[in-house]
Specification:
With 184 residues, the chain is an alpha+beta fold. 27% of the residues lie in helices and 29% in strands. The chain contains five helices and ten strands; from the N terminus they run ββαββββαβαβαββα. Strand 1 and strand 2 form a beta hairpin.
Length: 184
Amino acid sequence: MNRRTFVTTLAGAPCLLPLQASAQRAPLYDMRELVSDMAPIDLAPLNLTTLEGEDEPFTAHQGSLVILNIWATWCSPCIWELPSLGRLADAFVDQGLRVIAASIDGDGIDAVRTFLTRQPVDGPVFRHMGADGQEMLPVIASLPVTFIVLPDMRAVARVDQPIQWDTPEVRRRVTRWLDQHVAR
């Protein structure tokens, strides 16, 4: 049986955070239980802010399978899963996968820059999502939440809890999504 602990975010929402005996031992996930299908949402109009403070249309990633992780610098479960998102991004970098970690911090991209200065994380593309972008998404009850976005810019599934993104089970699921949706 997996050990878990409840973590309460500053917003007061409880999050389950898997505890591990070591960083090398990955928890076992049944991805069918973690991934929730949803009515497709067109994210093509979405704009993000780069670390340089420039606007970036989400369509810059069109043609790739995108794992869009919504997080915040004050969210412990979010921070816990960032390194595994980075390892997943690195593993599939040449296969049509883009991992975007979009912060919703109230202080904007400056909060992300400050966070990355103190705690560098490799792999994901870091961005900030303003309130207009957040309004495009379905209700987010707790963080982190991750959306699976097809190459045509439609979000079709979500994961509503922090997970270890570089486990064999998750990698198999990502490979299936890539095989089904990305011309390689």
